[in-house]
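quick one before i forget lol
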Amino acid sequence: MRIKAAVLALALSLFCLPALAQFNGRSDVSVDFTGNFQKQATGLGIIDSPSYSGGFLINYRYHFDNWSALEVNYARTNFTQYYSTGDQTQSNANEVTLAYVNTFGVSRHARLRPFVEAGTGGLIFSPIQAGSLSAPLTQDRMAFLYGAGIDWRAMHHVAVRLGYRGLVYKAPDFALPDQTTNALTQMTEPYVGVVFHF
């Protein structure tokens, strides 16, 4: 329930942030393709070995100045969790996060603009019955987000973004005892995409 409330709050933030444009700030939106690599998790005698997958990431950034920005993200991927108990669950993973972004004071007109970010949010794992051996339930997980990357300005209002994001969260078990590890895991997300400045 807490995750769903957080997702709703972050979604509302996404719609409210453009209103900040009246204050001399700048905004950008990016559409990115991701690689999604969840680490193996081990706990309570069970090993969770997830498949790797591709996905997409959409984010909106509001830049307060050349140093600071606030970012709202939505990402989606699909992968299968394989458990050492012989069970498996395929699921869609939806991510909604909010992050602070530091751009090191580099001018928005610079050709290369590095950044680092940190934030929080949630993951919603929605099982796909056709790819699962048991009867898993949808599961929410709080997540800590960290990342870094660089924007390369290709044209006045368009840039290419190359980055890396990491999400730390409790491994999903879909409320099934044969899939419960109670272990923290990490999903790494290298990504590349196009940024539109306005």
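fyi The chain is about 10% helix and 65% strand.
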